[in-house]
Structures are given as C-alpha cells and as structure tokens.
Amino acid sequence: MHEVQIIGTGSFVPEKVITNDDLSKIVETSDEWIFSRTGIKERRISTKEDTSHLAVKAAQKALKNSEISKEDIDLIIVATMTPDYFMPSTACLVQKEIGAVNATCFDVSGACTGFIYALNTGFQYIRTGQSKIALIIGADTYSKILDWSDRSTCVLFGDGAGAVVLKQSTKKGIISIYTGSDGTGDKLLTCPAVSLNNPFAENIEAKKSVVSMNGKEVYRFATTIVPRSIEKVLENTIYKKEDIDHYILHQANARMMDVIAKKMDISIDKFYKNIDKYGNTSAGSIPIAIDEMNHKSILKKDDLLILVGFGGGLTWGSVLLQWNI
Ligand code: ACO
Fold first, then answer.
1. Does the CB atom of residue 122 touch ligand 1 within 6 A?
2. Integer angstrom CA distances of residue 89 from 161, 271, 314
3. Beta carbon of 151 within 6 Å of any ligand 1 atom
4. Nearest protein Cα to ligand 1, atom 9
5. Residue range 3-13: average pLDDT?
6. Between 197 and 266, where is the model more confident?
7. Percentage of residues in the chain having pLDDT higher than 70
8. 38 in contact with ligand 1, CB cutoff 6 A
9. Does the beta carbon of 253 sit less than 6 angstroms from any atom of ligand 1?
10. Residue-range domains of the chain with CATH
C-alpha cells in the first residue's frame, strides 16, 4: 500500500458579501440573533457563479499551489449536492475547464460530509495504486436550494469551494480515516430532487427543491457524533487527542464547536473557525478552512490535523493526517 499526502490547496468564494443586516431586510431576523446562535457575521452568495465555476477556480489555485501540471492529474472527485447538472458531473466540467485530460472524473454526494467522503475515495484510489495524483474538491452553491422566506435556514448557509491535491508518496500524510452514515435520520435535513414525471406515474406530487432542517435535532446529532468521530479516527493509532495541533471541523455553528471543545476537554484555540465570514458552505467548508490555514502559514510541517465532517443523510467522517507542505 502507498502513502498519500496533500501537496497543495486552493479555495474560491463568490465576490458578493451578504451581511446579517442585509438578510434582516429579507426575513424577520437580526444580526444579534444570527451571530449569537451561530457565530455567522456574513456569507458569500453567488450572483452569477454556479458550482462548477467555484470548483474550477478552487482547483486552479490548488494546482498552482502544488506545482504539478494538469496532465499529471489522473482522478478528479467533486463533493457537491448542488451540481450545475445531474449530467454531466461537476467533476467532468472541472476537467474540461482545467484541461486535465488524463483524469477519471465523478461526483460524490455526502452533504456537509461530502469532502471527507471524497477525500477518503481519493485516498483509497492512491493507496491501492489505481491513481497517483488526485484533485479532490468540495463545492456547493446552497443559495440555489434555500427557501429565502425561511429564516431558520436561509441565514445559515453560504456559497464556496475548496480543493486539495493528493499525491502518492513514501512519507506518511493521511494516517487514518473513519466514516459512517445513518439513513434513519433522513428527515432531519432534506432537499428533494425532481419528482416522478412520466405518463404512467401515480400520485405525482410536485416537490420543491429547497433545504429544510430540524435544527435542534441536527445540533444534538452533531454534538454527539463529532466527539465520537474524533475518538474513532484516533483508535488504533499512536496518537491521543492532546497530540493534535488543529481540529478542522465542518463550519456549521461556532457555538456548537465551543460545546464540542468543552465536552472533549480540548482547548478551543485548536479549533479553526471561519464561519463568521462564510457561513456554512457545506462540502466547501473543510477545504476552504484548510486552504486559509495553509496560506496564513498556520499549518506547520509535521503538524497533526483532524478533519471532521457531519451533515445530511445523516453522514459523518473524520480524517487524521500529518501536514507535509
Ligand atoms: N432569526 C430570528 N429568529 C429566528 C431565526 C432567525 N434567523 N430562526 C429561527 N428563529 C426563531 C424561531 O422561530 C424560534 O422562535 P419561537 O421560539 O418563537 O418559536 C426561536 O428563534 C428559536 O429557534 P430554534 O430553532 O429553537 O433556535 P436554536 O437555538 O435551536 O438555533 C440553529 C437554531 C442555529 C439552526 C441551531 O439549531 C443549529 O445550529 N443547529 C445545527 C445546524 C447544523 O449543524 N447543521 C449542519 C449540517 S448542515 C448540512 O449538512 C447541509
């Protein structure tokens, strides 16, 4: 089996900044309510950029950062639940735009855990020798699927994308991965796709493709599953939670991160937060955070990182890795 390292990162968010005060002109809400419950101050909303556009920009930056040529990429995986099309995949659109002619391309759907699932898939391809250099992207444009009259959801999300380049190596990068799902929680966080539509269908019920969420239950789920995911990814390794330099959680709620840090008796300073600027960017949130930390030189060579995703499905997953850039 081969070792697998992250060798470059990139991210991209739309230009348009929407503040909490801007939202208070659309729905009955306030900066005070949103910030005190979630830690969000503003988010980026696409005015013209669809998911593939965000993904392409993030990918181009990751390629530049990793100093590899586009022809060397043999795998592109995009984690998204807001693709431009059902077909072709967003990964194929990225391939076309960046000219990665030698890549196999597909999307994965894991809601806010999507990036972790995609990273795991890329890791397994490289570990087993089927791939040598993979581009793993998390990209979402939730603004397309929000009910902008529902204040309980429309204030939480933002648009954005992040990408990492994974490479086969002799030195350890990704150390351990843990993932899980629970389909019985399907109703807690949903966004319907298209309805049955054929001359033979019975009881055609028009579905509206908008996000709905049982916030309290999802909160309960997240504050339980994140500590468990951290414990599980450390199991059978030589590391303990104290050895970890940075915890990079899916950015869903800053208050929730405080609760998790306290519950696990880990300093909150080890939890990276950028939700104030971007809101919840779903599959984009973890790679955007990694890229920011990389470019701000917060990540140092040999640092130990734990990434944790959780979200609709229900889904969750964590990755333990050593930073090698
Ligand atoms: N502005 C003002 N008031 C609001 C707003 C708003 N934007 N939204 C809801 N309220 C009101 C509600 O109507 C309710 O009023 P009521 O008491 O008169 O009925 C009150 O505020 C409290 O609402 P709650 O939903 O109970 O608020 P809560 O304290 O639970 O916070 C929140 C809501 C922030 C969404 C929280 O539940 C949460 O963070 N949940 C987890 C979300 C999450 O982690 N998602 C990650 C997965 S995302 C993915 O996978 C796609």
1. no
2. 16, 33, 23
3. yes
4. 152
5. 98
6. 266
7. 100
8. yes
9. yes
10. 3-170 (3.40.47.10), 175-322 (3.40.47.10)
Give the pLDDT of residue 197.
Answer: 86
Cβ atoms of residues 197 and 133 within 8 Å:
no
pLDDT for position 14:
98
Query: Does the global pTM surpass 0.85?
Result: yes
From atom 22 of ligand 1, which residue's Cα is the shortest distance away? 152
Please say whether the beta carbons of 71 and 102 come within 8 A. Answer: yes
Query: Which one of 219, 221, 286 would you pick to mutate in the ligand 1 pocket, going by the greatest count of ligand atoms within 8 A of its CB?
Result: 219
Torsion of CA 306, 309, 314, 315, to 10 degrees: -60
> With 0-12 CB in 10 A as exposed, 13-18 as middle and 19+ as buried, what is 302?
exposed
Residue 286: per-residue pLDDT: 98
- 133 DSSP β-pair partners: 167
Sequence-ordered list of residues with C-beta below 8 angstroms from that of 284, at least 6 positions apart, any chain:
11, 13, 54, 58, 115, 138, 139, 140, 159, 160, 161, 162
CA–CA separation, 224 and 176 (whole Å): 20
Could you tell me the distance, in angstroms and rounded to a whole number, from the CA of residue 215 to the centre of ligand 1? 5
Q: Are 117 and 108 in contact (CB under 8 A)?
A: yes
- Residue 253 tokens, joined: 């709620």
Degrees, nearest 5: CA angle 204-181-324: 130
Is the pLDDT at 204 greater than 80? The verdict is no
In the predicted model, what is the mean pLDDT of residues 146-172?
A: 97
Farthest-apart Cα atoms in the chain, separation: 60
Query: CA-to-CA distance for 97 and 163, rounded, in angstroms?
Result: 15
- CA-156 nearest atom, ligand 1: 35
Query: Which residue's alpha carbon is nearest to atom 50 within ligand 1?
Result: 311
How far is the CA of 202 from the CAs of 84, 139, 195, in angstroms?
Answer: 29, 35, 11
